[in-house]
């Protein structure tokens, strides 16, 4: 019988490559660091990983990852918060976007996390974003008056908005829900010497 | 009598440092390159420099630098252009901003080049921007209905807008001229994960 | 009794900050990714972490981290390799340096991993590098003829070499072991326009 | 008759593109700056350009650009300096390399500036570097004992050295002149974690 020997350093290096923004050298150095951590650190890390499996779940309303404090919790703190407006729904791509927008403290409605981007040309958009859950969310929330697309101002974001506008049009018309998109214009740091045509068009139109 | 010897390579290196964005090494290498250029190149360059002195002037209406084709020209091609709207005036900081906005082709009104930035705390704003010329421009143009501030979205730009709004308020009210500022929001390339509070506020307010 | 609630996402974010080169945003995004990994991935990762604790050990001769294939292995594959020269010892700072040098394939002797850097001004050099183990290694290896310092060409590396030369001088003289340092000069990519004085001195002296 | 109108701003922008490291936007902004400089600045610049034509010449021995203090000077200050060793000749690519090496103050011999790079595959190496002048220089200098190639450690530099070694071999052998190249090894800032194979080979060979 041949037993294939797995070097944990090699395994750790490979698995660490799955984390966002980590290159091969950094993964290798991180594997060495992990291998030298004391048992206490390692135990804390493993416990957190196992805990994450048990306690970190998608909110069943907005698909935001959150940590349950009680086993029967199905809604994230934002969806549970009765002080937040139920009439606007901000559609974001990923958890990090939601968290950053929350940090600005300027939005008081609810969110929906798509979990990715898609496009009008996509064959299987339901594999790329939480599409049926979004539809369900729109149908079930009785107070909903406006959906705001808050996607990045790049090709992926624009394609996703284009897809969703078409896909949701009939339903939103029937339910009298407005669809809008974050305002475009010059943003903090924009220098006029480098402004692009699209941004200039939006900035002129949106002047005030 | 002591005659101080001036090395033209040293002089060129020093003078080239006055050009925007040129560091000491680049200035030195550029001086060597200039010294090796053939007489034809050098003549062309010197002619252009002398020509610039004779022919490149500030437009007396908008303070944009332009090249006169006839000696009696006092207006730049944009200010002369009868097809451009006289009712909106876009206030920019510098010529490069004006040229870049022209390249986008989306603005059909007239410009005014401030020649710099200032702030409400400035002791001598008239030394930093073409202030009295701007006032004169506003008073004399009879059709003017709107002034649009198109300054960079940074501290200098914001301070300049704040100063001008206060400074021009009375005059603009009297003449029924609206003051506006380029719309803010997310601009091409903005990622939601890194959006700042100000831009998020503008983007939510300006959604549509 | 107050039970403090630990959010595994927060714990993971904090612990991931201990990996080399990971900033706060990347740690946060990585925590989300870890929390979403499937049970198979997570199990593989945890197994590798536990395995690393059991199987990854410092080689007792060179202090290189290596994975034991059998429980009684105490030497890393390099130290076990009878085809490698026992007469030269390359002193490196860390495992990643050793691995990169091995990748070049040009060194056939043995290594010693210091595990850090120190300096002649250090109060407790034995806390910063594996000093007594290095001494032991030098004394016990009967064939040793040369120690080569292969430290980075920066202040930390130079200070460490300076400290070790003084510290080991007597012992090396007694044992007739030569101490040397990697040759300095221009290295791949060096442009003469930017060469520093030290490198130019070494490059001229080492010309050939 | 059609007279083509040349805009001095356009001409300046185009000519400034010939300076090393200046992009189109920077050239444009520099043209605006030049056009606004006061007559005194402009006069100083033009005088320096004309002076450069009259006074900056290639040294007839080493092809370094230098400024003549008297009209009959044909040698640069380095070639004129009787305290500098005549027995070693450092071959460099360009003036900036020579100036940087002079700044380190560690070389006391003479130089020869190739004015470019070439390669063994070049069809017309004499168009790329001052080849016949180099040969003449080698033949005429009676004390010359060593030629040191001080070219950048990249493909262009290595190719140039390879070409020159072959090309000059017979002559150097006949005249008993040694050919050498700057020593290679780790240079200031080299980190062992990123060392390449070539540099490691040189660094091991050149240890001391």
Q: Oligomerization state of this entry?
A: homotetramer
Q: Which structural class should the secondary elements of chain A be placed in?
A: alpha/beta
Q: Major sheet of chain A: order of its strands?
A: 4-3-5-6
Show the largest interface. Answer: A-C, 48 and 48 residues
**Which segments of chain A are poorly predicted (pLDDT under 50) over 5 or more consecutive residues?**
none
Query: N- to C-terminal separation of chain A?
Result: 77 Å
Encode the helix/strand succession of chain A as letters: HHHEEHEHEHHEHEH
DSSP E strands of chain A, number? 6
SSE inventory with pairings:
The structure is a homotetramer of 208-residue chains.
Chain A: H1 8-16, H2 24-36, H3 39-55, E1 56-58, E2 65-67, H4 77-80, E3 88-92, H5 95-104, E4 110-113, H6 125-128, H7 131-140, E5 146-149, H8 155-174, E6 178-181, H9 197-205
Parallel strand pairs in A: 3-4, 3-5, 5-6
Antiparallel strand pairs in A: 1-2
Helix pairs in contact in A: 1-2
Task: Write up this protein.
Four copies of one chain form a homotetramer. The relative contact order of chain A is 0.08. Chain A has helices spanning 8-16, 24-36, 39-55, 77-80, 95-104, 125-128, 131-140, 155-174, 197-205, and strands at 56-58, 65-67, 88-92, 110-113, 146-149, 178-181. In chain A, β1 and β2 form a beta hairpin. The model of chain A has no long low-confidence stretch (mean pLDDT 93). The longest helix of chain A is centred in the C-terminal third of the chain and has 20 residues, at 155-174. Chain A is globular, with a radius of gyration of 22 Å. In chain A, α1 crosses α2. Chain A has 208 residues and is α/β, with parallel strands linked by helices. Chains in contact: A-B, A-C, B-D, C-D. Chains B and D meet through α1, α2, α3 and α5 of B and α1, α2, α3 and α5 of D.
């Amino acid at each position: 019988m041949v037993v294939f020997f797995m070097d944990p350093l090699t395994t750790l290096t490979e698995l660490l490559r799955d984390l966002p923004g980590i290159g091969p050298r950094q993964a290798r150095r991180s594997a060495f660091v992990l291998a030298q951590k004391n048992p206490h650190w390692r135990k804390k890390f493993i416990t957190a990983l196992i805990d994450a499996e048990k306690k970190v779940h998608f909110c069943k309303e907005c698909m935001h990852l959150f940590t349950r404090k009680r086993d029967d919790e199905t809604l994230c703190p934002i969806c549970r918060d009765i002080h937040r407006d139920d009439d606007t729904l901000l559609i974001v791509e990923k958890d990090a976007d939601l968290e950053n927008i929350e940090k600005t403290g300027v939005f008081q409605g609810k969110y929906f996390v798509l979990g990715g981007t898609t496009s009008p040309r996509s064959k299987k958009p339901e594999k790329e974003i939480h599409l049926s859950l979004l539809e369900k969310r729109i149908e079930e929330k009785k107070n909903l008056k406006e959906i705001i697309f808050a996607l990045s101002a790049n090709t992926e974001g624009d394609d996703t908005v284009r897809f969703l506008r078409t896909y949701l049009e009939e339903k939103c018309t029937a339910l009298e829900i407005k669809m809008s998109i974050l305002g475009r214009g010059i943003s903090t740091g924009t220098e006029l010497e480098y402004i692009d045509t699209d941004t200039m068009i939006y900035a002129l139109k949106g002047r005030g």
